[in-house]
Amino acid sequence: AGAFRMCVPRALGGGEADAAALLDVIEETARADGSAGWIVMIGATSGLISGYLPPDVAREIYGRPDVITGGVFAPRGEAVVVDGGYRARGRWAFGSGSEHCSWLLGGCVVVDAGTPRMLGRGIPDSRMMLFPASDVRIIDTWTVSGLRGTGSHDLEVADVFVPAERVFLCGEVDWS
Hints:
By secondary structure, the chain is α+β, with helices and mostly antiparallel strands. The chain has helices spanning 19-32, 34-46, 55-62; strands at 69-82, 85-95, 103-112, 115-116, 126-132, 137-139, 153-163, 167-168.
């Protein structure tokens, strides 16, 4: 029905919905099933990243109408700068809806020689990494009674290369 693509720009085949329409769809879905509403929220809002990607990369990822993205922004992983991108590793809890995703996100702190790289004002350089789902191990950790249908399992990557064009800092700010 397009719920997962509500925040993807029209130029990429998405709905480019405003916040009120997005909230209406999430609310109506959650009224029928809380877990489904949560998954629609995760899948739809993760589509916002399409606006932070270079246009050709955004088309590669979001060009197909069946693509769903999800993941965890919390910077629980580490990334090392390498030629052309980063090498990432990490484990993230609460990857809601991950089993349905074609692409998954994980927040990483950029490290140099084992030490977090710092931006101005002592803030760690945290970046969002975008991985093909095939590079991510989904670990079945979601054994709960409430919102059970969200499948909020752990996500893990081990030494995965992520090209620079699939790495971004949302709302990049010069903190110096």
